[in-house]
Design goal:
This protein is α+β, with helices and mostly antiparallel strands. It has seven helices and 19 strands. Helix 1 packs antiparallel against helix 2 (about 25-45) and helix 2 packs antiparallel against helix 3.
Length: about 350
């Protein structure tokens, strides 16, 4: 009877450890204790069955791992056979042998073969600035190794379709178009499946990825995998400033778009005090389209002697835009009187 009780206790301990849905030292302890009790009972019952005594613990480990995997993958339970890496209060990863379970604020996602990119909320991690993170590169790597991290910085290099790099940098007081001086001795290399075609060098981005490895050489490289790349929110809103000129001659501004300046030296797009871009740079790179500037603005038609519309004139807060029927576009100060002749 005592031998049967040991079996029952052993299996109960295993069942309890598998049913509990929390990460705890006690779960694996209960499971191992259950396996030990069953093995001890077998030893008492079959003292001469050496093969059985050796193989049974292995069979029980394999059996319980299989059940644990089924429960984790089908019922979204935290696996017993796993170790936890906590990236933040809302993001934890439970790594098992062939899969992992990602805990996004108590919502569990199973990742077979460690293939998924970061899938939790973008706000579940604190944002770290690239300059601060790389100022103590080795210490930062040790602190975040195997953890997800959210970094904000500027693109220093793009390689192929899947690799993007961030380096620490120094800003110039009067730099335009996002230009900075990069320190390429320390670099974050991001492997991602995000679409990188819309990003350029000097762009401000936010990346979230798993800190995977560190390589030492002429450049110390920290590699992030399973990463996603997010455009910076600083580009969501902007204001436009003009620099006037006394010259009333048409000056080509964006040749491929047939855009000219009249009475202006330049036009600047202010995203904030540190991110100022020349409009011709943004239009040429298709970051801003002319229609983006003109939308929601009324216009006046400019007609010739035959009452045929030759241009539309848009009056914005600080400048005018003359959009000719032949495709030419002219930016000018508000005080400038625009004539049909400028379209020719």
């Amino acid at each position: 009877m005592k031998k049967v009780v040991l079996y029952i206790i052993g299996f109960l301990l295993i069942i309890i450890s598998l049913v509990l849905n929390t990460f705890s030292f006690w779960r694996i302890s209960l499971l191992l204790l259950g396996i030990i009790l069953i093995t001890i009972n077998l030893t008492l019952n079959y003292p001469k069955k050496t093969f059985l005594l050796i193989s049974m613990p292995l069979i029980l480990l394999l059996f319980t791992y299989t059940i644990d995997t089924i429960l984790a993958t089908n019922l979204k339970k935290i696996p017993v056979y796993s170790y936890r890496i906590k990236s933040s209060e809302k993001v934890s990863t439970y790594n098992s042998f062939l899969y992992r379970v990602i805990d996004c604020d108590n919502t569990l996602t199973v990742d077979y073969g460690y293939n998924l990119a970061y899938s939790c909320s973008n706000d579940a991690l604190d944002t770290h600035e690239i300059n601060a993170f790389l100022s103590e590169t080795l210490e930062s790597y040790k602190s975040y190794h195997h953890k997800y991290i959210k970094l904000n910085g500027k693109v220093s290099k793009i390689s192929g379709a899947n690799i993007l790099e961030l380096s620490s940098y120094v800003e110039d007081d009067d730099s335009l178009n996002g230009y900075v001086n990069f320190n390429t001795e320390y670099t974050i290399r991001i492997k991602t499946n995000s679409d990188l075609t819309k990003y350029r060098i000097f762009d401000e981005v936010t990346v979230i990825g798993l800190v995977n490895s560190l390589t030492k050489g002429e450049t110390i490289i920290i590699e992030l995998i399973d990463a996603i790349v997010l455009p910076s929110t600083i580009y969501d809103d902007y204001s436009i400033e003009i620099l006037e000129s006394n010259d009333q001659e048409l000056v080509s501004y964006v040749e491929k778009n047939n855009i000219y300046l009249l009475g202006l030296k330049n036009i600047f797009v202010h995203y904030d005090d540190k991110h100022i871009y020349e409009l011709n740079y943004l239009i040429a790179d298709e970051r801003i389209m002319l229609d983006d500037i003109l939308k929601n603005h009324d216009y006046q038609e400019l007609k010739d002697e035959d009452d045929v519309v030759q241009a539309n004139i848009y009056e914005l807060d600080k400048f005018k835009i003359m959009k000719c029927q032949n495709g030419r576009t002219i930016f000018s100060p508000l005080k400038t009187k625009l004539k049909i002749d400028y379209c020719n």
